[in-house]
Amino acid sequence: MANNHFETVSIGNIQVHVLPSTKFKTTTFVAYIGQELKPETVTKTALLPAVLQRGTQSTPTTIELKRKLDDLYGAILFGDVSKRGERHLMEFGLEIANERYLQDKPALLEEGLSFFTEVLFASATEGNGFKASYVEAEKKNLKQKIESLQDDKIRYAAQRMVEEMCKGEPYALFNHGRLADLEQLGATELYTYYQDVIRTCPIDLYCVGNVSTEQVVELLRDRLASQVTGQRKTYTLAPVVREVKEEKVVVDRLNVKQGKLNIGCRTQTEITSNDYPALVVYNGILGGFPHSKLFRNVREKASLAYYCSSRLESLKGLLMIQSGIEIGNFQRAVDIIKEQLEAMRQGRIDQQELEQTKATLTNAYKEQQDRSYELIHFHHQSVLAGQERTLEQMLQAIQRVSIEDVVRVAQKVQLDTIYFLRDQEGNADAKN
């Protein structure tokens, strides 16, 4: 198996993770800047990646920035925000060609790193803030993004279920922020916030490609010199064990033809736990793949759903089930989904289901090794968890999982919230 071990070096208070590999013809840089997920900063954090991609001090206009990317042999710059557990992450990436594979051998690694660190730390400004025109344009884009959530009913139902299930917890917040905050957010205030973020929030810089760690660290040392002093915040994982007092049923009515049934469960299993690999197998058997119980029993046997699957939010200890159903089939679908959860608890799992799930998971993890971005994502999850579990260790742990292990994990899973998005017709009893 290929060596997928990142080498981690601290440059002051910034962590640099390098994976030297001859597998890739391009070099990928990714930066994660982590903030707490909280109401007062969620919208500002969501706005920053878009604003930072508009221009830097040496390429202050969008046209100059695009020209710079062309000069870097068609480099690709990207940025976004996501939430992982109770953490709100800004994520930036730059993918460039590796100079070893170019005839004229330009100093692309050095130029690429210079440009990437400039995007992060030397943004285009005017007066005491960001360029106002960029901030206003990106506020409009973000407003559209937040408003368009309701147009994508699958994502809307997933977010609403989380809001209801995690009421009073930071995880309930939408990672793209809140409309109410946008109006009064100005270029100066956002810039002041940005300066605080890059000074105090944890930063992890990644590089994957045919490079040497020493070379990358040396190039970064000078470029980070002004950013690496002082203390950065440290975050601990929020506890995932949360007793469910009673099942909640929440129904929303919108103008929809197809019902969206989303069910949220608390797994009560931490990502750092020895039981975590068994939880991953549990999710695979339950609803992670086309051979899973939910897919077979809800969609194929009972023909109740257009889709039905489950996924884990590992850092928050949640298991989310998503399905699209005919509106009249609500109760039957809930019953059959509950039957599958109960079947898992009682160990009604055959050896074939176990082996097929392990094989499918193993393939999925091995495929990650061929994609630099997924290798980075996997490693950063262990940084957030505060405990490294390499891909190789994860693959070995999955092979060791027995049916008894899956049942032990299944017995901890508690159904918390049933969320149903349905049409506006029908009687007052929302489920009929």
UniProtKB/TrEMBL annotation:
Keywords in alphabetical order: Coiled coil
Source organism, top-level taxon: Bacteria
Record-annotated membrane-spanning stretches: none
Family annotation (Pfam families): Peptidase_M16_C (PF05193)
GO molecular function, one term: metal ion binding
Domain Peptidase M16 C-terminal: 187-361
Coiled-coil ranges per UniProt: 132-159, 351-404
Keyword flag Transmembrane helix: no
PANTHER family: INACTIVE METALLOPROTEASE YMFF-RELATED, METALLOPROTEASE
Record-given protein name: Predicted Zn-dependent peptidase
Naturally occurring in which organism (per UniProt): Laceyella tengchongensis
Species classification: Bacteria, Bacillati, Bacillota, Bacilli, Bacillales
